[in-house]
Design a protein that fits this description.
The structure holds two protein chains of two kinds. By secondary structure, chain A is an alpha+beta fold. Chain A contains three helices and five strands. A five-stranded antiparallel sheet of chain A has the order 1-2-3-4-5, with helices on one face. Chain B has helices at about 20-35, 85-90, 95-115, and strands at about 1-5, 10-15, 45-50, 50-60, 60-70, 75-85. Classes of the chains: A alpha+beta, B alpha+beta.
Chain lengths: ~160, ~120
């Protein structure tokens, strides 16, 4: 008998006490759909963060002639390089990933500027189903400003 | 058919969430109950306050009311109503106590999941 309308409790109940295979199949399908929905929701949160980084990439391009974004990264995020006389003298990198507990999203920043400061690292965490876009923007802006000042002082025209 | 009373079932789960946060989590718990756990019972949600909700569901001979509220560092769900099910299911589920335990376990697990 088909029970497309069964809720999770009844599916589990029927599977456990009646050995109802249709309930087990329904349960597996429901779990698959739930996992799919979770993946889609997580991907949407990733995309929200990446859109902030893309906006800032354009912003940097308009202001810094020595700026270039880098593609083909081995991680989710963006890497922004800064050149002087055709040589990369510094970079700011943002990596987006799940936290070790898998319960949150972490944005990590890495930056380095030749002759000014060695590799720096910072990060901010968010619940994976509720990324605060204003905090993302503030974090990204603060890291870019942290880099741009010394870069401008050392290499700006 | 047999009826299993739910009256007197009370589930308490401690939490460490702030009062603002716990309101959102109880709402998510209520939505999960309505849309997933007990979907076929047509659960409706009445909001008496930010941390005080009432869920009601009814289908065929089954009906229930669940009062959900936050108390000091705990979320509490109190149930009334009854579940109608076949005598075969009742026997296989371990009788009245078996069905009540399953309902209680499901609610407690769902509440813990949302308050974790």
């Amino acid at each position: 008998m088909n029970h497309p309308e069964r809720g999770e409790f009844t599916r589990k109940f029927d599977r456990e006490i009646l050995g109802d295979e249709s309930a087990a199949e329904e349960e597996r399908e429901a779990q698959r759909l739930a996992a799919l929905a979770q993946d889609e929701a997580l991907e949407a949160e990733f995309q929200k963060i990446l859109s902030v980084l893309d906006y800032r990439a354009n912003w940097l391009r308009e202001r810094f002639p020595g700026f270039r974004p880098v593609g083909d990264l081995g991680f989710r995020g963006r890497r922004f390089e800064f050149l002087h006389e055709d040589k990369v003298v510094g970079y700011v990198e943002f990596r987006v990933r799940l936290t070790d507990s898998q319960q949150g999203l972490r944005i990590e920043s890495f930056m380095e500027l030749e002759g000014q400061f060695p590799r720096r690292h910072d990060y901010v965490n968010f619940p994976k189903d509720n990324v605060n876009l204003d905090r993302v923007k503030r974090f990204v802006e603060s890291k870019l400003l942290e880099f741009a000042g010394p870069y401008q002082d050392a290499y700006g025209s | 058919m047999a009826k299993v009373p739910l009256d007197g079932l009370r589930i308490e789960v401690p939490h460490a969430a702030s009062s603002a946060e716990v309101a959102g989590r109880l709402e998510a718990f209520a939505q999960d109950m309505a849309q997933n756990k007990f979907r076929e019972w047509g659960v409706s949600i009445v909001r008496h306050g930010e941390t005080h909700l009432q869920l009601a569901g009814r289908r065929d001979g089954t009906h229930f009311d669940a009062e959900v509220r936050a108390e000091d560092r705990r979320a509490v769900v109190s149930l009334t109503g009854s579940i109608e099910l076949s005598r075969l299911k009742l026997t296989l589920a371990g009788g009245v106590q078996g069905v009540r335990r399953r309902v209680e376990d499901e609610l407690a697990a769902t509440l813990r999941e949302h308050l974790a």
